[in-house]
Amino acid sequence: MAIYNVVEQVVWSHLDKVMAQKANICCCELCRDDIAAWALNQLPPRYVTTALGEAYIRAEFLDKQLELDVIVALTAAVEQVSANPRHWQSLKSQEPL
């Protein structure tokens, strides 16, 4: 196992549930990536190098406060990205001049 940020996996595992709570949100890959990145930048990373370390960190996420922190960060990220979607800029930049 290489260096691994357990928080990233936790964010991805909660992303769909949080996005489902907001109507009319874009679910394209770019917006999903932006939401995950924004949320991860708000959360402290939890790096591990072994399966035992991963199990220990995942056990910490059984603490409801840590899980709530992830949900709060994702909710804020959904609001931020849905108010400023970047996918339109990406599509425009691909148009021929």
What does this entry look like structurally?
This protein is mainly alpha-helical and 97 residues long. It has one domain. Helix content is 68%, strand content 4%. The chain is built from five helices and two strands. It has a two-stranded antiparallel ribbon with strand order 1-2. Helix 1 (6-20) packs across helix 2, helix 1 crosses helix 4 (64-83) and helix 2 crosses helix 4 (64-83). The model has no long low-confidence stretch (mean pLDDT 85).
Give the gist of this structure.
This protein has 97 residues and is mainly alpha-helical. 68% of the residues lie in helices and 4% in strands.
List the helices and strands and how they pair.
Layout: E1 4-5, H1 6-20, H2 29-42, E2 47-48, H3 51-60, H4 64-83, H5 87-93
Antiparallel strand pairs: 1-2
Spans of at least 5 consecutive residues with low confidence: none
Count of individual beta strands: 2
Radius of gyration: 15 Å
Order of strands, main sheet, comes to: 1-2
Shape: elongated
Q: How many separate domains?
A: 1
Mean residue pLDDT = 85
End-to-end span in angstroms?
46 Å
List keywords for this structure.
5 helices, mainly alpha, 97 residues, single chain, two-stranded antiparallel sheet
